[in-house]
Each structure stands twice: as C-alpha cells, then as structure tokens.
Amino acid sequence: MFGGFFRFLLYSLLFFFAYRLFRFFVPKGTKENKESVTKGGVKVDDVMVKDPACGIYLPKRDAIRERIKGETHYFCSEKCVENFKRGISKSVAPDTVSLKR
C-alpha cells in the first residue's frame, strides 16, 4: 500500500524537477516578442508621423511617403500630397483644438 504511494510521490518529484530544469534552459517567450519591446516594456508597433499638409498624425506604415526637395514627408492622402506641392496647407492653431470630456 505504501509502496504505490511512494512510487507516485517519487515520479511526481522527478517530473517536477525535470520540468523546472527544462524551463531553466528554455527561455520564456519568443525572439519576436523580445525585439518588439522597448526599454520601458511597452510594445511599439509603429511610429506616428505628422502630415505637413493637414496636420494629422497617422502610423508611418499607413502614410504615403514622398521625397520633396530632398526631404522625406509623410501624407495621409494623395490630395494632401498635391496640396503640399502647391503650397496649400492647413495649419491647426493651438487655440482651435478642443478636448471634449
């Protein structure tokens, strides 16, 4: 009766230590997860860029990239690209921005 119990206890302890040894040598998480985490521990998917024509911010991966006069600019639409090239831009004055609560 006690032989079966001690055998079960022995196998349980062996399994536990084998698992702990495995977890010690195999890191938690993948390489991809470690690369996408910054120093602060916040995952960064993309950088926000400002459209110089209309002033909105959008993810860099979604923006239209144009090189104008040696500088790279990011736009939200083709219309903003054309407006910027023609010199038309909407500047948003700080006092016109309202924050709704």
From TrEMBL:
Sorted UniProt keywords: Membrane, Transmembrane, Transmembrane helix
Keyword Cytoplasm: no
The protein, known as: TRASH domain-containing protein
Annotated SMART domains: TRASH
Residue span, TRASH domain: 51-88
Highest taxon listed in the record's lineage: Bacteria
Positions of transmembrane segments: 6-26
InterPro entries: TRASH_dom, YHS_dom
